[in-house]
Amino acid sequence: MAIAVINEKVEVFKKSIIDIVEVLNKTDESILYVKPSEKEWSVMQIVSHVLEAVDFWLVDLEALLIVPGAKWGRNHEHVRRLAAVDENVVAQLKKEDVIEALQNLIPRVETTLAKVKEEDLEKTAPSYNPNFDGKTLTFLIDHLIIKHVVGHHDQIVRHLAKVQ
Predict the structure, then answer these.
(1) CA 153 from centre of chain
(2) Are 145 and 60 in contact (CB under 8 A)?
(3) Global pTM exceeds 0.70
(4) Which of 4, 84, 92, 132 is deepest in the core (most CB within 10 A)?
(5) Which residue stretches of the chain have pLDDT < 70?
(6) Where do the H-state alpha helices sit in the chain?
(7) Listed residue (78, 77, 47) closest to 60, CA to CA
(8) What are the backbone dihedrals phi and psi of residue 69, each rounded to the nearest 5 degrees, phi first?
């Protein structure tokens, strides 16, 4: 059962990454750095966030598989999260590089999720983020990796509609 569920999650993740890459490929690179408003991220900031966030959550997931019940997570003020969307950092990113990095997330997610056993899915652990405290590994996988990327694809599409 876990294998089928995990494979389904991997397919949803792959499709979202492929969809993001397709949008990036169709968009002039200069547009990717335009913020729809002062309070909204540019597409490149969103992509940088996706790259950093997926990496962060995969590392936490792998650690929880080794040390079940350990405290995990972060809040919105985590330094790596903030650095990933800093405009000076994002300005240095190149479209071709982020596309490659996004594509490289697919085998990374496949490899990490392949380590998850059915009995792992319902394990819980305390979190540094009170909103995630006591959540299962299923929550971490579904909401912080899979649905997070799906949501950011939709955000990218909405943002591009505002700036093009």
Answers:
(1) 10
(2) no
(3) yes
(4) 84
(5) 1-2, 74-75, 78-79, 82
(6) 2-26, 43-66, 79-84, 87-90, 95-114, 137-139, 147-163
(7) 78
(8) 85, -5
